[in-house]
Write a structure and sequence with these properties.
Blueprint lengths: L1 E5 L10 H15 L3 E8 L7 E2 L2 E7 L4 H17 L5 E5 L7 H6 L4 E5 L12 H16 L2 E4 L2 H11 L4 E2 L14 H6 L6 E5 L8 H9 L6 E5 L7 H9 L6 E3 L5 H10 L2 E4 L8 H8 L4 E4 L2 H7 L4 E3 L4 H13 L14 H14 L2 H16 L2
Parallel strand pairs: 1-2, 1-5, 2-4, 5-6, 6-7, 7-8, 9-10, 9-12, 10-11, 12-13, 13-14
Antiparallel strand pairs: 3-4
């Protein structure tokens, strides 16, 4: 098939979960012999024409966050409608606003909703309205809509009467890395730190984590791995919140070997989100065999299916209690910090998750959706 993908920032790159999904799907589809083109956003980055058998079309856009996605998705759609693609796959709600244009030119369209992004406090005003409009266009005009959680699936049915297909993000087992770069740059060793690795935005709940951590007497550091430049108002508030605590380390954005080392050697991975689509970072934590604590929102709980620990969403005291327990009972680490659970049971649950979220299976399911819309 000839396939186009629109909606991500750019590949290769790990600027967010959408980018990881587009890279994993497109490269696997190309490896299977499909003709795949991705439409990258281009601000000031170096231009590329291909990546791992995937064709890359660069679309110039603005760096301004409110205009970036609008301008990019409009011109990416204009570029693609004059090409002979069998399927155009839109990723994320905002870019889906352009689906009616693609349909006007007779394109078969699949949309993946990675989360209800308009709910994020990161977006307000025009940006929030544009994202919500994109969601509506996906529900009304896409040939098929893919969602990443049962919660979003219910939302689309109740809100738009739209039947969606649930296809999760993928996961892969990885070879752990010894603490090399992180030891030299941040003074970190195996099991010496708690890890938060995600975008530093309000919905990720970093406020609760910092507040809870600062009340606990522990030698383990809190490593916050996420982009802190450019410094937004929220990032400034987070940095101020952490002032006076030398054991809180901000690494800024990480990728490659540093990313792998951080996941491989953490004592715990924590994701205290207020809302999520399907948290790819949790799947990656499972891939690295990290133990996890998450907020008890449906997307986190459904994703882990019994793996790891949870606390009450937005509740600092609840987070403090579960974090304190895990820090005080290191002997239970191999048992997922759960009394009465054996290491063998944890190993079995991890194997189930690795099989359930296998990237090759996710790719095959997505290709099946493409075939379905071709035959409509």
């Amino acid at each position: 098939m000839k396939i186009a993908m629109i909606g991500h920032k750019r590949i290769p790159g790990r600027s967010g979960g959408v980018e990881v999904v587009v890279e994993e799907l497109s490269t696997r589809m190309a490896e299977k012999g499909h003709d795949v083109t991705v439409y990258n956003r281009r601000c000031n980055e170096e231009k590329i024409d291909s990546y791992k058998k995937v064709k890359v079309v660069e679309v110039k856009t603005f760096q301004h966050p409110s205009l970036n996605a609008v301008v990019y998705s409009f011109f990416a759609t204009l570029k693609c409608v004059f090409k002979k693609y069998d399927v155009v796959h839109y990723h994320a709600e905002g870019p889906c606003a352009m689906i009616p244009i693609a349909k006007l030119f007779g394109k078969k369209v699949v949309a993946t909703i990675h989360g209800l992004n308009w709910q994020s406090s990161k977006w307000e005003g025009f940006a929030s309205k544009f994202i919500k409009f994109g969601e509506k266009m996906a529900a009304k005009h896409a040939d098929k809509v893919i969602v990443l959680s049962e919660n979003v699936r219910r939302y689309f049915k109740e809100t738009y009467g739209c039947d969606t297909l649930f296809i999760p993000n993928g996961i892969g087992a990885v070879t752990p890395e010894e603490p090399d770069i992180i030891a030299r740059e941040f003074g970190l060793s195996k099991d010496s730190y708690i890890l938060f690795l995600a975008r530093i935005t309000p919905e990720k709940g970093l406020d609760y984590l910092i507040d809870a951590y600062k009340t606990i007497d522990t030698d383990k550091k809190l490593v916050i791995a996420g982009g802190i430049t450019p410094e937004t108002e929220y990032i400034s508030s987070v940095l101020k919140r952490a002032e006076g605590c030398d054991n809180i380390i901000f690494t800024d954005f990480v990728s490659g070997k540093v990313f792998s080392e951080l996941f491989s050697n953490c004592y715990l991975y924590i994701l205290p989100s207020d809302n999520e689509g399907m948290p790819l970072s949790l799947l990656e934590a499972v891939g690295y065999d990290a133990k996890v604590i998450v907020s008890n929102i449906a997307e986190n709980i459904d994703c882990l299916d019994g793996y790891g620990n949870s606390f009450v969403r937005s509740d600092t005291q609840s987070l403090r209690e579960i974090l304190s327990f895990c820090l005080e009972h290191s002997e239970l680490k191999d048992c997922d910090f759960k009394p009465g659970v054996t290491p063998a049971e944890v190993k079995e649950k991890r194997a189930e998750l690795l099989a359930k979220y296998d990237w090759d299976n996710v790719t095959d399911q997505t290709l099946d959706v493409y075939k379905l819309v071709q035959n409509k």
